[in-house]
Amino acid sequence: MEKQTNFFQSNTAKIIMVGLLTFILLIPLQFVKNLITERADRQKEVVAETSEKWGEQIYFYGPMLKIPYKTHVETKLYDPKTKEHVNSVTTELHTAYFFPEELKNTTKVTMVKPLQRSLYKSNVFTAEMAFTGNYITPNFKINNIPNEDILWNEATVVIRTTNLKSIKSQVNLKLGDSMYRFEPTQHIQNDTMSTLETGLVDLRSLQQDASMDFKFSINYNGSKLIRLAPIGKTTTAHMTSNWHSPSFMGNFLPNDKHKKISAAGFEADWEVLHLNRPFAQQSFDVLPNVKDYAFGVDFITTVDEYQQNERASKYGFLVIGLTFLIFFLIQSISKISIHIFQYSMIGLALLMFYTLLISITEHSSFTLAYIIAGLSVIVLISVYSLSILKDRKFPVFIGVSLSGLYAFIFVIIQMEDYALLVGSVGLFLILAAVMYFSRRIDWGN
Length: 445
Known about the structure:
By secondary structure, the protein is α+β, with helices and mostly antiparallel strands. The longest helix has 29 residues, at about 25-55. The protein contains eight helices and 19 strands. Helix 4 packs antiparallel against helix 5 (about 340-360) and helix 6 (about 365-390) runs antiparallel to helix 7 (about 395-415). It has helices spanning about 10-25, 25-55, 305-315, 315-335, 340-360, 365-390, 395-415, 420-435; strands spanning about 60-80, 85-100, 100-110, 115, 120, 125-135, 155-160, 170-175, 180, 185, 195, 210-225, 225-230, 235-240, 245-250, 260, 265-275, 280-285, 295-300. Strands 1, 2, 7, 10, 11, 13, 15, 18 and 19 form a nine-stranded mixed sheet that branches. Strands 9-8-12-6-3-14-17-16 form an eight-stranded mixed sheet, with no helix packed on it.
């Protein structure tokens, strides 16, 4: 008569208990993920605060000629005394904006030493921006406005920009043979941009001349990004920087033939024609919203430490599950009994990897932290498994397996374009290995 095996000592019962323990360990793993998110949010707050004090993102729109003009509205009013209709003419004042015929920009961006507060750093820069170009005689005939209604001697030049408080020098405009200084005007509520405007400019000479040249420069302290609006009939820009990982964003990308990116920095050129964007060279009464058509550079950190930690924690379930599976296969093949408490200790050791990783990363690099945390956990589990499994060959196999698993995950974390492909192939090979080693296990016991 065959001896019946107690269900709770069978492989089926053991794998159910190990599976339940794996899901239970997802609870503290979620707490670890929340910790990483909390630290990442704290970093964003500190970066935003330090960036605000140093200088925020830069968006530049201008320069534009602002010329007032008059319109005359004729209405008929009824006079009850004479019982006749009388013509009444009302004069209204309006504003027309004219963009440059040619706009050239040269920008030099220098990344300075990161601002640090406590454990957190903020990447900031200085930007030296120089503008040159010219205007042609404004065309009011497009709106049938007679010359006598144009106030040529009351024109101004306007630029709009963000980060006004971090401009580091006076902004002086040379227009023709005259110099003008930009001054801030009243800020519009709920508008993220500010306006700088010159004093009155007499443009009567522009009626006779074919064009009028201008030039000026402006220096900023800034962070995150720089954007330029292509308002010239032909807009060209040349930007250089010592930042090694630029992200070219906006509605127009730089010319690939002249773009250079290296560890020492980057160099890029843009050329935008008026045919490439959906607004005209003049605007009456209201400036067009050209923010969606701006171009520039984001000075980003491709993958920061907290993003890497977050990615690593997403593979926590895989690490715990595969490690438990290795121990279960060893237990089933060697007939060595492993208590559920011992599985719990191994699971907690695996969770310690992520707390070690995030804490060491904040004081060093992610790569160094990953190596230290990984080796610590691998050694701890290997030594602990030596006391459980007695035979040295099994702890060595476990140590090698964990090393391969952590190395595999590290490679996936560092990848961008091929992460899914490499991860899928790796998981397929792991599944094949598990199927191979589990083929002789007697699941009836």
